Each structure stands twice: as structure tokens, then as C-alpha cells.
Amino acid sequence: MYLYIYDSCLKEKKFENILTKIESRIIDLDIKGEILRMNLLKNVSQFIKDGIKKGAHTVVVIGNDKTFSTVLESAMSENIIMGYIPIDKKSKFAQIFGIPYGELACAILGGRIIEKIDIGKINNKFFLGSIVIDDCQNVELKIDDFKVRVGRGNKIIIKNIDFEEEDSKISNPTDGLFEIFVEKSGGFMSKNSKHTLIKTNNILINSRDTSTPLIFDEIQTINTPAQISIADEKLNIIVGSNRKF
User: Fold this and answer.
1) What range defines the domain where residue 91 resides?
2) Same-domain status, 101 and 156
3) In the chain, how many domains are there?
4) pLDDT at residue 189 above 80?
5) Boundary of a domain, candidates 111, 140, 164
6) Tens of pLDDT, residues 91-106
């Protein structure tokens, strides 16, 4: 059985046509299931728990990357397979997973190619792609037994999966490791160049003077201090043949 979680924005009239096409295709493929339409009063975790008790094996997010990232927390706790039907043509997650836009994504669900991939954990939250610190203010990274200090004017990128198409083969989401990059303007490196510091599965980030924001999956923000690790859990995700890993 499938569980479908609809983004709250799908109530808007501009999504009426695409939603009708998606629902029609779901019926054609005989992959119907229970539906939860998200809002502040709906408990996603409880919906998934109840669905599993009834025999559900897959939770499908119909929405954008923010919706997927939000549902990820609950789905990872229940070790259930995830699927994605993007309603945003620029979805980064969809590009990574090889999932087309709108009703075309339903065929991917029906194909059920399932990959088991690494998930990052930042404090008590899961993330899929990357963590970025845009403007470092005396940030300190503790990696294994040594420390690295990164000052103002530098940008730190910690990748589990790469969002940048040209570098999409660099970060492997099945190797159990993050890749850490520093992006620096001027100096001994060319503008906006990336330099790999190290591969690791555990990082502690602190900032000496003030709390520093970390943006994860280009959507959510958490402040230092932050403990970052590869989660023990794996994400079971339905992907397309054009996935980037």
C-alpha cells in the first residue's frame, strides 16, 4: 500500500491541472493509496505509523524539495521506502534521483527501482544533500583528532550528494563519507574554486565569536554548534534510470 503526502500548496488553483493528471496516472498504474494533505494540524509521523500498521510499504511526497525534506524526518524514523512526485520543475532532489516532473514521475513509482543511500544527520535532524556555511566567522571544524579553522570570506560546503550538475559524480551517497570543500575568492585559489579538504563521516562545527547559521539541503537552517555525521539509518528511495549516482 502507498501513502501519499500532498504539500499544502496543492490546494491552490494553479496546481489543479497537474494534480488531476497525477491522480489520473496513479489510478491507471494501480498504485492508489491513502492521502494526507499537509497543514499545521496534521501529524505526518502519526499518518505514516498508522499506514504501516495497515500494511503500507511506501510513502510518496507530492510537492517540492522543502516538502520532501520535511517528510524525510518522519519517514526515516519508520524505515519506510520513499517516493517523490515533484511539482517544481527545478527540483534538485528530483534531478539527483532521476525523477521527471509531474505525472511522468508516476511511472518511476511503478518501476520501483529502489536504492539504499546515505543520509546525513545534523544534531537531531536528517539531511540528504549538503550543508553550507555561506560566510564563516571564525568557524572551527573538528574532524577526527584534528581541528581546522576557517575565517571570514570563506564558504564551507559539506556534501553527501552534490546538487551541482557539473560535479554530480564527485560526491557518492553510498560510500558512507562526506566531502568537505572550501570556496574562497582571490588569494592562492581562483575565484569560486573548490578545494577538497578531506573525506570523513563525522564533523563537529563550532564558531568562536557568535552562533553561525548552517543551511542544509538549501532549505532548512540550524545554528552552531553542530554535530554532523552519517546516520546509521539508510534512505530507501525509488529512483529513475537517470539518477546521478
Assistant:
1) 2-111
2) no
3) 2
4) no
5) 111
6) 999 999 999 999 999 9
Residue 51 lies in a domain: yes
Check residue 191 and give its pLDDT. 45
Cell of 116: 539504499
Q: Strands, E, within the chain: which ranges?
A: 2-6, 33-37, 58-63, 81-86, 113-122, 125-127, 130-133, 139-143, 146-150, 154-159, 178-184, 193-200, 202-207, 213-216, 220-223, 226-239
Taking 70 as the threshold, does the pLDDT of residue 232 lie above it?
A: yes
CATH number at residue 8: 3.40.50.10330
CA-wise closest residue to 36 among 4, 74, 69:
4
C-alpha cell, 212 = 553561525
- DSSP alpha helix (H) spans, the chain: 16-28, 44-53, 65-78, 92-97, 105-111
